[in-house]
Amino acid sequence: MVFGYLLSPSGVFFGESGTVKKSLMTVSYILMLIFLYSHPLDGQAGPPEEGIESENGVFKGMVVRVIDGDSMVIRVNRENRIIALYGIDCPENSQAYGNAARYWVTMLVFHEEVRVKPIPPDNYRETPALIYFGDDRCLNQELVMAGLAWVEERSCQQPECIRWLEGENKARNTGVGLWKEKAPTPPWKWREMQSR
Questions:
Q1: What share of the chain has pLDDT > 70, as a percent?
Q2: I need a surface site. Which of 21, 27, 157, 160 has the fewest CB within 10 A?
Q3: What is the CATH number of the domain that holds 141?
Q4: What are the φ/ψ torsions at residue 42 (nearest 5 degrees)?
Q5: Three-class DSSP category at 133
Q6: Which range of residues forms the domain containing residue 19?
Q7: Three-state SS at 77
Q8: How many other C-beta atoms lie within 10 A of the C-beta of residue 190?
């Protein structure tokens, strides 16, 4: 049976069996469900995105939420995955420059398709990864170069990390971003102070 009735100006539906009165509440409910499905809020279920995984584990997805400067939610097919930017640490949202880092990431990649290169190990809550957007720009590196992130020297073991450290030193020496401050508090020290 073909679903579909036409609403007349008097609020009466016309269908196969003649005139059938329906509650406008039911129509509103159906329209609301259609709207929510086609316009997902904050990364909730919506139309699936294509997530093509390559041999080296790289996959594509849509950024549906920016949590903070170095973590976000990416929708791949029907699944939302929390991704942590590998090898860097941005100020926390409630820390100086934390909102600036989150805003900057939002402006670059929110509602954009990105390529995700996971870096093991995966702790099952967050997937550490390199994020690429636009014309092969690496979001991890861009944050460091903009003076909105520290390179995690002990855990950053990829070849890119050497270039990132050079970028961090350049940002520090030129006073870019958080390096405008004389002694910015690293986020790992800030988190330690907050937990006391």
A1: 70
A2: 21
A3: 2.40.50.90
A4: 55, 40
A5: strand
A6: 6-38
A7: strand
A8: 17
